[in-house]
Amino acid sequence: MSTELEKFLSTLKGCLDTQHSARAKDCVASIGTLVAGPEALNAAEIEYSLDTILNSPNGLLAFLRRAIKASGRFQKANEQIFDLFRRLIQQHATPVRKSSAGMLRECIRYVQSSSVSARERELATAVVQDLLVYRCLDDDVHGMTQLLADLLAVFDQRKLTNRFQQALFELVGLLARDFPECVSQEHQAKILTTMMSVAEGQLLEESYPSLISLAGALQGLNHFLVNFAPPGSGNEEDEASGSDVYRRIYVLVKKLSDWDEAVKERQAFRNALQLLERHSALFGRFLYVDYIYWQTILTGKWIRSTVEDRKCGIYALAALHRELGRELLSREAAEEREALVAVLSYFMKYFKGVLMGSGSKPFEVRIAIRGFGAMAGACARLMSEEYMQELLLLVMQRTEYVYLVEDKSGEQLEHLPDLVQALSEIMGHVRELTGVQVSSLQNIVIGLIKDFHFLSTAHHELVVSSVMRTFDNLNKLGGGVLEALLDKIILRGLVWSCSHTLVIDANQNRDESANWKDFVTYKNYLPLWRGLLAEGNSHGVDRTPLIKLIYSQLIKSLFLILDKLNLTTRKRTFKDESGEDRELFFCDPNVDLVPVKPKDFHIFFNLVDLYQDLLRYNVPVRDHFEDWIPVYFDYMVKMALKHPLVSGFVKLIDLGLTTADHLQYFQNQQSSAKLATVNLLVYFLELQIAKGRHSIGELQLTCLRFVLSAPVTLLESFLEDSSDLLEVFRIAFQVGKGILTLANVTLGCVQRIVAHDSPIAPQNRERVLVTILPLLDSYLQTRDSNVPAPITGQLTRFQRKRSVNLTSAKIEKIKLQHALASSESELVKFQRRILLFLGDIEPGLCTRMVHREEGSSAAERPLVLWDLDSNCSIVLQLLSGVGVRPIIKLDTIIARVCTLAVGSSDRRTKVAACELLHALVLYIIGIQYQDKMTKLCVFTCTDDLAISENFQPLPATRQHRPLTFPTLKLDLLT
Question: Which end of the chain offers a freer environment for a tag, N or C, measured as fewer CB atoms within 10 Å?
Answer without folding.
Answer: C
